[in-house]
Design goal:
The complex is a heterodimer of chains A (261) and B (288). Chain A is mainly alpha-helical. Chain A has 2 domains: 1-109, no CATH class; 111-261. Chain A is 49% helix and 12% strand. Chain A is built from 11 helices and 6 strands. Chain B starts with 15 loop residues before the first strand and ends with a helix. In chain B, helix 3 links the parallel strand 3 (65-68) and strand 4. In chain B, helix 8 (237-250) runs parallel beside helix 9. By secondary structure, chain B is an alpha/beta fold. Chain B has helices at residues 22-31, 51-62, 82-95, 124-141, 163-174, 182-191, 196-202, 237-250, 266-287; strands spanning 16-19, 38-41, 65-68, 99-103, 106-109, 112-118, 146-148, 155-156, 177-181, 208-213, 217-218, 227-228, 255-257. Chain B has a single domain, classed as Divalent-metal-dependent TIM barrel enzymes (TIM Barrel). Classes of the chains: A mainly alpha (261), B alpha/beta (288). At the A-B interface, helix 1, strand 1 and helix 2 of A face helix 2, strand 5, strand 6, helix 4 and strand 8 of B.
Chain lengths: 261, 288
């Protein structure tokens, strides 16, 4: 019998068994009335179930669209291709949208990857840091700064998604999927996500407003955000865009630095 | 952002608390049930902000709190994930919990996390590694850390000592506290055919800071008995009986009811905590 494995070798072998690569580690498992591989299989199943359950929780709209059976097959393949790399399961599954795009079975479901992106962004939005919105004094001081050097720090929960599909309409339909599904040729949608109270809020934006907020989120100056938005729509009006951000408490600082805390 | 007010120190009492899970948070906030203390899974609060933290801050203000981790992977041959440890440290600083714990297990190797409480071989090498890891965690957190014995469904041929000796030595050598999971002792006594009372007797009773109780499920149609630590059912009668033995050995100890799958109404958990409380009461009466 070969020498007993060191801990690292044993754990690598155990992981190989759990991931279905090799059962060689079974030689070191005491069967005690069962096949050693049957005992390893218990762990293989619990690991698979835990990770699939985590994906189901993070991707409720994808699950609603494709159904449990398809989802679980996809989850199984995903976790073998993109294993969990963190002890915190909230980080597991971030690459699912790209994985779906490459899945042959999902080729006819072009919208599915964007729905996955929206599910994931909702999770990020829910878990983002807290921050206090700016007060009136701060806003008044900002008004005195020239727009070409004024920059805006948005709330950490703000996220943006641009889709060529009606992704938000589809996501909302998934919450109570009855009646005809939304038409996939219903046009592009641009979505703003943020946290309102404790809940994740979402809103559709027109393309120019989306572009403006995207530039602001990228910490570009107010003047360049406005310029970029008017390239999309030459009638874009900056004022209601900023007013809405302020009203929702999504501006947490003004700065005239290129990067600021 | 304004600095949060410091919390009042609230030690976990030698009473029966419950593991607080998402489906019950809203009711607990609204109704403030007379639960002596709560425990939450640390990793559920690893996000930076949001509703989960807002709720936990309110609960911590009114109840003693224990942070129980499932993802530190203390026994991985690879080494601790220092980012995970740093996040835990921030969480501990933020909530000043009365107890902080994780498991005697491993879950990561070669950068891949299996996100499970996997069994360590009861070898000298694994014991030495666990001792140094627990010391590393206690140094990083600047406080006492508790380790919990886990359920397991296999043991290794090259084990050099019984699990009870492994656990007792780990606690003694690292100077940490023990979170004694009585259900896990029972599950393992069936799965690995040992006397659970002997196991309890081998524990360092003065170091037991907390006891866990939960329900298991039984695997049918196998040639040998096999119990799964499913946290999906009421505590079994045999486990209640073993809990009484544990109290007789350790004295009144903070006790937690855990339920993680098929989570029932809050009342069911409160009733289970009540059953533990009766036994704690009897234990107090016996030593008075």
């Amino acid at each position: 019998m070969p020498a007993a494995p060191r801990l690292h070798e044993l754990q690598q072998g155990f992981a190989d068994a759990v991931l279905g690569r090799s059962d060689a580690v079974a030689a070191w498992v005491d069967g005690a009335g069962l096949e050693p591989t049957a005992r390893l299989r218990i762990y293989r199943n619990t690991v698979a179930n835990t990770l699939t359950a985590a994906l189901r929780e993070s991707y409720p709209a994808v699950l609603a669209l494709v159904g449990g059976d398809f989802f679980d097959v996809m989850a199984e393949r995903y976790r073998l291709e993109h294993p969990s790399t963190c002890g915190n399961l909230q980080h597991f599954g971030g690459a699912l949208a790209g994985f779906i795009e490459a899945m042959p079975e999902a080729q006819s479901l072009g919208y599915l990857a964007d729905v996955a992106r929206l599910d994931w962004l909702r999770q990020l939005t829910a878990l983002s840091a807290d921050a206090e919105p700016v007060d009136a004094v701060c806003s008044a001081a900002a008004a005195a700064v020239a727009p070409d050097s004024l920059r805006i720090v948005l709330h950490p929960s703000v996220h943006l998604l641009r889709s060529t599909y009606p992704v938000l309409t589809l996501w909302q339909w998934c919450q109570a999927p009855s009646g005809p599904a939304p038409r996939m040729d219903g046009g592009a949608e641009q979505v703003l996500l943020w946290r309102a109270g404790g809940d994740v809020a979402m809103a559709l934006l027109d393309p120019a407003t989306f572009r403006c907020i995207e530039m602001l989120a990228d910490r570009r100056s107010v003047a360049s955000a406005w310029a970029a938005a008017t390239e999309v729509d030459d009638e874009f009006d900056l004022e209601p865009c900023l007013r809405d951000l302020l009203a929702q408490g999504l501006i947490v600082a003004f700065t005239n630095e290129e990067s600021s805390t | 952002m304004s600095e949060p007010l410091p919390f009042v120190q609230r030690p976990v009492p030698a009473s029966a608390g419950i593991g607080l899970r998402a489906p019950h948070i809203e009711r607990v906030l609204a109704e403030r049930p007379p639960v002596p203390w709560f425990e939450v899974h640390s990793e559920n609060y690893f996000g930076a902000g949001g509703a989960m933290h807002a709720a936990l801050a309110r609960i911590r203000a009114d109840y003693p709190l224990s942070l129980h981790g499932v993802g530190l992977s203390l026994g991985s041959a690879d080494g601790l994930d220092l980012e995970h440890l740093a996040t835990l440290r921030r969480l501990v600083d933020r909530y000043e919990p009365a107890l902080v714990s994780d498991h005697i297990c491993w879950g990561e190797i070669g950068g891949v996390h299996l996100n499970d409480l996997l069994p360590l071989p009861c070898t000298q090498e694994a014991l030495d590694l666990m001792v140094s890891r627990v010391q590393q965690v206690q140094d990083a957190l600047g406080r006492e850390f508790l380790v919990e014995n886990v359920s397991s469904y296999l043991s290794f041929r090259h084990a050099q000592m019984p699990e009870s000796a492994f656990v007792a030595e780990l606690v003694r050598r690292s100077g940490c506290g023990l979170l004694l999971d009585v259900n896990n002792v029972y599950v393992n006594s069936v799965n690995h055919d040992f006397d659970p009372l002997q196991y309890l007797r081998a524990m360092p009773h003065d170091s037991v800071r907390e006891i866990h109780l939960a329900g298991f499920t039984r695997k049918d149609r196998l040639p040998v008995p096999l119990l799964i630590d499913s946290h999906s059912r009421p505590v079994a009668d045999d486990v209640w009986s073993l809990y009484e033995d544990a109290l007789a050995l350790c004295g009144p100890t903070p006790t937690l009811i855990e339920w993680d799958q098929d989570i029932p109404e809050l009342e069911v958990l409160l009733a289970e905590a009540g059953r533990a409380e009766e036994r704690l009461h009897a234990c107090r009466a016996a030593i008075a």
